[in-house]
Amino acid sequence: MSAFTRRQWIQGAAAGAGVFSLSSLAAALQNTTTPYQRPKLKITDIRTAYVSAHGPQLHVRIYTDQGIFGHGEATDSALGAAAIIGGFRRFLIGQDPLNIELLWERVRTMGIFAGAQAGQYVTALTGIEIALWDLAGKAVGLPVYQLLGGKCRDRIRLYCDSAGHRPEEPGTMQKFQQVKDLGFTALKIDVDDGRDPNRWDPVNWTASNAEIDRMVKEVAFVRENFEPRVDLAVDMHGRYDATTGKRMAIELEPFKLLFLEEPVPAENVPVMRDIRESTKTPICAGENLFLRHGFRELLESRAVDIIMPDIQKCGGLLESRKIADMAHTYYIPMAPHCVVSPIGTMASCHVCAAIPNFLVLEWHWISRWKLWGEFVKEGNIIDKGYVALTDRPGIGVELNEEAARRVQTPNTTWFVAS
Ligand code: MG
Fold it and tell me: How far is the CA of 287 from the centre of ligand 1 (A)?
């Protein structure tokens, strides 16, 4: 890429007026520079790598002709997404990576007959989108939250997910102490258990009385072991039927939960609304919904009290901001799902910083505490249950490849040039 500036182009045009017509001069200016004399970036390559930490995570790098690259992370429905990204390459190579909305919309609409409404296609697009935001921030020297509208807060509150919570399990009290020592002010436990001996049937979705009693007892045990100011959320992973969901929401009312997550699956919105209307327990859903379209009916029907898009698979950082804005018009807060490495977590933090209706962000790596502290070159980014935003450009953390390769998914490649 020529390092011509706008002034050089104009001087050249004046000297060679016979060579350049005004229309070709205008085209050259448009194609080669920006109004602020920064040479236009071009995407030159896209490379991926898989790690297996909390589920499969796909890391995406987008390279440019000016030496900088963007790094994004996608999750959960990411198996297969690397191959889908391979299909995006022909369109993306040569494009200006700063036109993020345009590239996102073009890739999305390219796939409307190929599953671009949800699932792996959107997850692949999400990995690309987040890498583009990291790249854009690095290109203009600003943190991503600044490009998303600026920050409403300086640090992002996390809840610690699934530290171990069963009274009968050895080590539970030590895990509680670890959560307290780390300074978290919120936690979440998973009470669903397909191996519960009280289940009468391994397939049917109705919890028995004894199973409900076991779940309530676990919630009571955790509640008793943390001071009241610490918030407690409970996840049922959408594994129960409507009757069970309704019973559990009512049984848990005395514990004043931060939220009860997906007592039933999120895809039947009227059923979720029935449960919400039957209880004082706040209902949260949405970790398996995609794009704004996935959240529209949930919000319009007032079927939930809190939404929880997974920013690493629902469409990306700007799409998550748009989902948050939709929710805000219903006075509904957002508590994003998040199971990824410090790179994806920090990317989520930029969205959480930029939206007014942020509640709390999931964090799910307590069983990988050592790896967490080594996964990026900046080290551990959590302090007393919060992640502080920094002024570093882009997402602001950089992969430590030596640490990340320890959990590289077997039989996969590592950012191989193509
Ligand atoms: Mg969940």
Answer: 6
Check for a shared fold between 43-145 and 155-400: no
C-alpha distances in Å from residue 276, one per residue of 257, 270, 330:
14, 10, 15
Ligand 1: centre distance to CA 324 (Å): 18
- CA–centroid distance, 113 to ligand 1, in Å, is 29
Q: What is the mean pLDDT of each run of 10 residues along the chain (418 residues)?
A: 41 43 60 63 97 95 97 92 95 97 98 96 98 97 98 98 85 94 97 93 94 97 97 97 98 98 97 98 98 98 98 98 98 98 98 98 96 98 98 98 97 92
Lateral strand order in the sheet of 43-53: 43-53, 55-64, 69-75
**Pairwise CA distance, residues 368 & 366, whole Å:** 5
Query: CA–CA separation, 95 vs 113, rounded Å?
Result: 23
Q: Say how many Å lie between the CA of residue 351 and the centre of ligand 1.
A: 19
Hey, what amino acid is at 137?
G
CA gap 235, 261 in Å, rounded: 5
Q: How far is the CA of 128 from the centre of ligand 1 (A)?
A: 24
Q: Which CATH number fits domain 43-145: 3.40.50.300, 3.75.10.10, 3.30.390.10, 3.40.50.1980?
A: 3.30.390.10
What is the distance in A from the centroid of ligand 1 to the CA of 249? 16
Return all residues near 67 (Cβ < 8 A) that are at least 6 apart. none
CATH fold of 155-400 reads: TIM Barrel (3.20.20)
State in Å: Cα 267 to ligand 1 middle. Answer: 14
Name 5's Cβ contacts closer than 8 Å, sequence gap at least 6.
Answer: 33, 37
Helices 119-140/81-92 angle, 10° precision = 50
Domain boundaries of the chain, sorted by first residue: 1-38, 43-145, 155-400
Beta strands 306-307 and 361-363 are: unpaired
